[in-house]
Write a structure and sequence with these properties.
The complex is a heterodimer. Chain A has 2 domains: 148 residues, Rossmann fold (3-Layer(aba) Sandwich); 84 residues, no CATH class. By secondary structure, chain A is α/β, with parallel strands linked by helices. In chain A, strand 3, helix 3 and strand 4 form a beta-alpha-beta unit. Chain A is built from 10 helices and 5 strands. The N and C termini of chain A lie far apart (52 Å). Chain B is of the alpha+beta class. Chain B has a domain of 173 residues: Cytochrome-c3 Hydrogenase, chain B (Orthogonal Bundle). Chain B has 13 helices and 13 strands. In chain B, the strands form 4 sheets. Chain B has a 4-stranded antiparallel sheet with strand order 3-2-1-13, with helices on one face. In chain B, strands 6-5-4-9 form a 4-stranded mixed sheet. Chain B has a 3-stranded antiparallel sheet with strand order 10-11-12. The longest helix of chain B is centred in the N-terminal third of the chain and has 31 residues. The radius of gyration of chain B is 21 Å and the shape is globular. Classes of the chains: A alpha/beta, B alpha+beta.
């Protein structure tokens, strides 16, 4: 059997999710017995235009990125969105609340016109995506599990229940009981509730579950002292792109 | 070779997207530039209007590889604006976490991104066949640093526990004590690392430049200090704008910077040149063993300076854990009332000095943000190095010229997604 050819690509992002892939360390060498990594700019010099599976990190923020992404989609039989920027748009989308011209001007001043940008979007708004590995950054165990499933020809299981489920399984005290606020009740699980476990509220980096009870969650945030504006601001940290859902 | 055209598109084994274009005609450089083609990120615009409480959480996302430094620097800027001084415990934990990030980042760079060049292979995977034990050692040391990051910060990439004023959760003393043992037990592998890098010979090349880093009378400055220039003295971080003159060039989405000269260098070699006497004694010995002598004007030796700093950070972490354990570790809380103010945070990132400036209003909303990234500061210096390097290596074979160029750029450990993102070499006329 020939080994599947795997490529990693990055668009507008911090490349942290590819770094998470590198943190699987020795497992990566095991993985190399099963796959050929043919393109991974951050880690290897070899490059190939022929691959079966493409992991794509980053959101799309320039016209030139749209063409690059379409070529990847045309080449790969399976495209996997890697991390929040690719799956839901991520922090890059925060700039979408402004006119692009003013954003360019704030950072590049008089030379703004030299640095084109378009409103940030997840890759799914440009091409069809087969699977999503959520999170900012991704969880390394989930990456390994999804990759294993793909190699076995099985559909990867991505949770459609909220972070609260995993948080309770870890027997954490609910942060709302501690007077804090949390996006856990509406956010897709899979992170093992890592932020609440370290006593920090979930900020929704994995995106919303398919059927979130937003009005109830908004009330909960209000009861804990957040104005409507502040509550929406919480939703917008990673999810500006899906803001219509919150209105 | 009198005529030489090279266009390295998307240089590999660096963080982010960049190209190198060099055009030599009749032995003279006509064109030389390092193009930064990473998509611009616009963090300074995105921070506006956000709460002072969440801005560090956002700026962490500037960079996956130095997320701890970005978060720390952002927090320091906010604390400065609020006029708040954190506890000794919090500062020690921040230093410990920063050491872990330095080890993680330096090990990644010297073992996985630069070592393959010395074996003429395209990646660390190409080293596995003949040097598997070396690769595994690098992975084990990187894992150790990852685990230390996770113990203190919750995770390395986009740390969770780092907050304004304190940590949201402190590590348990038992876990810290157990970790101290792991570092002690890793000492033989750290020494084997030093032995390994003794066998790798960096190209000979020298060009003196201005070296800028933080400096601190009490310690080898990573977490805090004032800005030191090797040319003309110290500057308060509050006045960073007088020292770091940013400018824009159309071929780079990352801003360039200069100080007194046309360009300057930041990073491990700059820190070594400015502060080598304050390194841990074991790290100073390692510098001698590896032939790194002060002052060093060979930018390729930045890799060696990173190995030296790795030793320093391991040893300093042992000391920090001892201090934390002997003082006892408490869960801390910090409350703030925001008020209008300005604050600057300056911290050494693995790649060089990082600055965050924030202004906030009475509601705690960010009204101004400015972030100055190490790789951006190095770009002009990399171009000047290449201008000086290339005429002297034109007698070499084409592949060897490209290798020397790529290795020089890689030695700076550029992080372009940070500075916005860097590169590969292809021949323009082919």
């Amino acid at each position: 059997m020939t080994k599947p050819r795997v490529a990693f690509f990055s668009f507008t992002s911090c490349e942290g999710c590819q770094l998470v892939v590198l943190t699987i360390e020795e497992q990566l060498l095991d993985l190399l017995d099963l796959i050929d990594i043919v393109t991974f700019r951050e880690a290897i010099s070899e490059k190939s235009e022929e691959y079966d599976i493409a992991f794509v990190e980053g959101s799309i923020t320039r016209e030139s990125e749209i063409e690059r992404l379409k070529t990847i989609r045309d080449t790969a039989s399976i495209v996997i969105a890697l991390g929040a920027c690719a799956t839901i748009g991520g922090v890059n989308c925060m700039k979408n609340q402004y006119e692009m011209k003013s954003v360019q001007k704030i950072v590049y001043g008089e030379m703004a016109d030299n640095f084109d940008t378009i409103p940030a979007r997840p890759i799914e708004e440009v091409v069809k995506v087969d699977y999503h590995i959520h999170g900012c950054p991704i969880d390394r165990e989930e990456f390994v599990e999804v990759t294993k499933s793909l190699l076995l020809g099985k559909k990867p299981r991505i949770p459609d229940y909220p972070v609260c489920v995993e948080c309770q399984m870890r027997e954490n005290v609910c942060l709302f009981e501690k007077g804090m606020v949390c996006m856990g009740p509406v956010t897709r699980a899979g992170c093992k509730a890592i932020c609440p476990t370290y006593n920090d509220g979930c900020t929704g980096c994995r995106g919303l579950i398919d059927d979130p009870n937003l009005s109830s969650h908004k009330n909960l945030l209000n009861e804990h002292g957040l104005s409507v504006e502040e509550a929406i601001s919480q939703y917008m940290l990673f999810g500006e792109n899906s803001k219509d859902k919150f209105k | 070779m009198h005529d030489f055209h090279v266009g390295i598109e998307h240089i590999t084994r660096v963080e982010g997207h960049g190209n190198i274009v060099i055009d030599v005609k009749d032995g003279k450089i006509k064109e030389l530039r390092m193009e930064i083609v990473e998509s611009p990120r616009f963090f300074e615009a995105m921070a506006l209007g956000r709460s002072y409480r969440e801005v560090a959480h956002i700026t962490s996302r500037i960079c996956g590889i130095c997320a701890v430094t970005h978060t720390t620097t952002s927090i320091k800027a906010i604390e400065s604006a609020l006029g708040f001084a954190p506890s000794e415990q919090t500062i020690r934990l921040r230093k410990l976490l920063l050491n872990a990030e330095f080890i993680q980042s330096h090990i990644l760079h010297v073992y996985f991104l630069t070592a393959p060049d010395f074996f003429r292979v395209g990646s660390v995977f190409g080293m596995v066949k003949d040097n598997k034990e070396t690769v595994l050692r690098g992975m084990r040391l990187k894992s150790l640093a990852n685990d230390l990051c996770a113990l203190v910060g919750g995770r390395h990439i986009h740390p969770i526990t780092l907050k304004i004023g304190c940590f949201s959760k402190s590590p348990r003393p038992d876990d810290l004590a157990a970790f101290r043992e792991r570092i002690i037990n890793a000492r033989p592998e750290i020494q084997e690392t030093v032995e390994f890098f003794k066998t790798l010979k960096n190209p000979e090349f020298e060009r003196e430049t201005e070296y800028i880093s933080l400096t601190n009378p009490d310690e080898y400055a990573l977490y805090d200090g004032v800005i030191k220039s090797s040319d003309d003295g110290n500057t308060s971080p509050d006045d960073y704008i007088d020292r770091v003159k940013e400018f824009m060039v159309t071929h780079s989405t990352a801003k360039h910077a200069k100080s007194g000269k046309d360009s300057y260098m930041v990073g491990a070699l700059a820190r070594f040149n400015n502060n080598h006497e304050q390194l841990h004694p074991r790290a100073r010995e390692v510098a001698d063993e590896l032939g790194l002598k002060h002052p060093c004007y060979n930018p390729y030796m930045n890799n060696v300076a990173q190995v030296v700093e790795t030793v320093h950070c391991f040893e300093d972490s042992i000391n920090l854990i001892d201090e934390l354990l002997s003082n006892g570790i408490e869960e801390e809380k910090a409350e703030f009332t925001p008020k209008t103010g300005r604050g600057v945070g300056a911290t050494e990132a693995p790649r060089g000095t990082l600055y965050h400036e924030h202004k906030i209003d009475d509601d705690g909303k960010i009204t101004y943000a400015n972030y100055i990234i190490p790789t951006g500061q190095n770009l002009a210096n990399i171009e000047n190095d290449l201008r000086s390097l290339v005429p002297g290596i034109l007698h070499k074979e084409r592949d060897d010229i490209i290798m020397d160029i790529e290795m020089l750029v890689r030695a700076y450990d550029p992080c372009i997604s940070c500075a916005t993102h860097l590169m590969k070499v292809k021949f323009v006329n082919e």
